[in-house]
Amino acid sequence: MDRLIAMRVFVTVVDLGSQSAAADHLDLSRPVVSRYLAELEEWVGARLMHRTTRKLSLTAAGNETLPRCRQLLELADDMQAAVDVPSDAPRGLLRISVSTSFGQAQLAAAVTDYVRLYPQVSIDLQMLDRTVNLVDERIDLAIRTSNDLDPSLIARKLTVCRSVLCASPAYLREHSALQQVDDLSGHNCLTHSYYGKSMWHFTCEGEEVSVPVQGNISANEASTLLSATLAGAGISLLPSYQAGVFVQRGELVRLLPEAEPRLMNIYAVYASRKHMPASLRSMLDFLAERFTDEPVWDKYL
């Protein structure tokens, strides 16, 4: 039995959810797929899957075996890549998790430029406004905006995330002007469901100030808040990487520029330095060079 092929069959059956789908994907017959699964179970010494006519499910032994099979297959692929491409040119699939707002505003253009440089690399962008488990969800790289990262992960700082207090000209024509941050309590503030839902934080003349806010629209990602702000719904605290160009065009007005919203950092986060593929290493270097501590989008403010 070719144990590597058997492990690849097992992983593919799990990922695709059926033996027939795995057979089509691997260009094998259904009986061959079944034989590889049976031989792998015989080698492991335990049943790996419950098989019914409707679905497949992993046994306890299957759950233990699956991540080890993935690891061994990754090692085998790394060895093959080293032989096939002596120059260690980046190649293969990179799965990247990123927030919808940063993905749309900045990262999509960045990875487009990256794949022009490294055409043997494919990018799967997962636009997710939640914290993902890199290992369980098979994410190679996560772009996270935070000041409090999981210490078990490896992080490389890319740039800073400044926020902009802003509103549309239409909203400002209909409502009283802001003189100080405390005036926000009298305005309709559009808030993020997870960040600053009821309290916005600023630095004013060197002092930390927190202001309670409320409004009739909240959302779990910044792109929706941007659209509502442009439509005149209220005042928002938006990332400068997203709002800066609209301030430059006059579609949004920056409010109280002397009040500095709380600064956050943008990191590239990954699970391990061991057996890092060339594609991930080159992507990290590419993003670190592209996104600096003085990001280009802040020039619009």
Automatic annotation (TrEMBL):
CDD domains linked: PBP2_CrgA_like
GO molecular function: DNA-binding transcription factor activity; sequence-specific DNA binding
UniProtKB keywords: DNA-binding, Transcription, Transcription regulation
InterPro entries from the UniProt entry: LysR-type_TF_proteobact-type, LysR_HTH_N, LysR_subst-bd, WH-like_DNA-bd_sf, WH_DNA-bd_sf
One BP annotation, GO: DNA-templated transcription
UniProt cross-references to PROSITE patterns, sorted A to Z: HTH_LYSR
Domain HTH lysR-type: 1-59
Sequence similarity: Belongs to the LysR transcriptional regulatory family.
The protein, known as: LysR family transcriptional regulator
Organism: Pseudomonas fragi
